[in-house]
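Review form for a predicted model. The reviewer records the input and the model, then writes brief findings.
Reviewer: anonymous (R2)
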Amino acid sequence: MVVWRRSHQFVLSIYRLTDKFPRHEAFGLTSQIRRASVSIPTNLAEGCGRWGDGDMGRFVQIAMGSASEVDYLVLLASDLGYVPSADYIELASELNEIRRMLTGFYKQIRSAGQRKGGESAANSSHLKAKG
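Model under review:
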């Protein structure tokens, strides 16, 4: 699933970035931004492990909520001077693309759920092994 791979790469970028945050933020902003970013691909993976489009749709919505949370946290980190402007622009752009993909996937799931007799979108879009 392309959106899962993109969000996984985004999480890796967040970990590299937050590794440079001040030590006093370890249990504050660093922890929160990492948790929220990890939640995006985690919820997609969990949704793929469930049966039916209804379950998958709920997990995509949760992933979208986490993406919105990360959006604010990256802005906050930038405003606090922890994220250089160029990095902020790159992260915000990538996050917008991930959100666009999540929206498209959610629409695909809803559309498949409205058709009768077709294979569910959740079951046809399983996570693929890395590579």
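Findings: Residues 116-131 have pLDDT under 50 and may be disordered.
Further findings: The domain at 2-115 is CATH 1.20.1440.60 (de novo design (two linked rop proteins)).
Recommendation: see findings above.
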